[in-house]
Amino acid sequence: MIFFDNVTKSYPGGHRGLSEINLHVEAGEMVFLTGHSGAGKSTLLKLIGLLERSTRGQVRVGGRNLTRLKRSQIPFHRREVGMIFQDHRLLHDRTVFDNVAMPLVVAGVGHSETSRRVRAALDKVSLLTKEKAYPVTLSGGEQQRVGIARAVVSKPPVVLADEPTGNLDPDLSREIMGLFDQFNQVGVTLLIATHNLDLISTLNKRILTLDGGRLAQDTRAKGQGPVNTMRI
Amino acid sequence: MKREKRRKKSAHISRRRRLHLHVWLLRHLQVALSSLGRLARAPLSTLMTSAVIGISLALPAGLYLLLQNVQELSGSWDGAATISLFLHQETSAREAGELTRELGLRADISSVRLIDRDNALEEFQRFSGFSDALRALGGNPLPAVIVVEPTTDHSTPEAAESMLSALRALRPVELAQLDLQWVRRFHAITDIARRAIAVLATLLGLAVLLIVVNTIRLEIQHRHAEIEITKLIGGTNAFIRRPFLYAGLLYGLFGGILAWFLVVLGVGLLDPPVARLAGLYQSTFELSGMGLDASLILIGGSTLLGLGGSWVAVGRHLNEIEPS
Fold this sequence. Notes:
Order of helices and strands of chain A: EEEHEEHEHHHEHEHEEE
Structural class of chain A: alpha/beta
Strand content of chain A: 25-35%
Largest sheet of chain A: 7 strands, mixed
Oligomer: heterodimer
Strand order of the largest sheet of chain B: 2-3-1-4
CATH class of the domain at 1-80 and 158-165 and 189-232 in chain A: Alpha Beta
Helix content of chain A: 25-40%
CATH superfamily of the domain at 1-80 and 158-165 and 189-232 in chain A: P-loop containing nucleotide triphosphate hydrolases
Radius of gyration of chain A: 18 Å
Number of domains of chain B: 2
Shape of chain B: elongated
Largest interface: A-B, 21 and 19 residues
Distance between the termini of chain B: 38 Å
CATH architecture of the domain at 1-80 and 158-165 and 189-232 in chain A: 3-Layer(aba) Sandwich
Radius of gyration of chain B: 34 Å
Strand order of the largest sheet of chain A: 6-7-8-3-9-10-11
Number of helices of chain A: 7
Number of strands of chain A: 11
Number of strands of chain B: 4
Helix content of chain B: over 70%
């Protein structure tokens, strides 16, 4: 589903965000991305969501070569990739319902269909009762769940999450990861960047470790793939 | 399970295609209404922007209307260009009368009046105060005069001038005079006024454009977060642009309507005193207001300026916002 072929991302001034990354994430996988701050986790996710473009090498998502994608095609690519952020990025002058509906409105989905799917997404994150609330009246965990509902409402095949539990306590973090696991069960490919090593070590999923912009370690989940741990 | 899903998806796609145009129109209507709603939620700033546009456009529109009225008034002044034909001394009264009749038949002449020698003398004695001197001369030194008034169509300086040279060539005419000086001056003044108004209208139109550019620019800055998030979730540039274009269009429309209203109000206020003044001159002159054409041009032009301004602002500033 997601291919990185010798991908390097360098910034003006010579700083390297990523160096020669080779990576393949299969459809339906749930992968954690760890590493120190500045190791390149966010950069890797940004390349997939086309918030940035690689300097060298090829990124392919769902058969689409992002290196050659025209600017005008970027919106249509992003509709296939749900993104979740540490700071939620909700619109505070709109209700929970309107926030979650945005991807459907943007894609031109009809009114009744939108209502149905927004309610289904809110139901999944247990926020159906808060659809008329404004984000500021919600707790951090609730706001993050609104962000998650917005990312999955249009049923994208790929969902990216950048530090989704960064500001949450362990219980809430576990709850959020549980949600991701549920999406994974129905076939969504997930890539989650996180610092929370304690939590992910209990989940038995593939873990990619970045260090200084390089892929340092690729730990497969038990019972999946030929090698449990591969040092690169 | 998978096949079922695919079938559902393809059914969904075909349904969407059928509804495509319908959805497109509906979406435009929705955006237009939501832009209207957004403006209505900030009535004061909407009113201020529209008022600035309205006043800016009412000024040249009002001046243009004034000029139009002045020209209409001048058109109704008979004898704007009067040609006096001084006949040779030896021309007989019969010849003079015949010439007068002939001229009266011409299509480009609205009226002809003969002042024969006796009448001319009488008039001169009455008005000049030289009656004693004339009496000392013995005979009547004054020629007969035919006063010719061209029709309105032929009162322009050029037409009157060519008529003058035609009449000058007539045999009994010794001297033909056209008092065009003031007609020329009047035309020159209205030409200057017309050009000044055109310059003013251009400048104020540009001002309106800049006002809208600035208003929309601020609006884009204000909604920075929303634009960024919309781009993140796959909103196309056209989708993001649309509400701003509608906002600019609505500012222009409101401004145009306000300008129209101000001009109509101005005409309404000026009409009674103008009618009174006209009455004092035994004239039935009436101020003419904005016609349908002029109204449509004013409001339509204002709307286009609003749309153009927002187009400029959106083109310059929307691409600067990229999610990171």
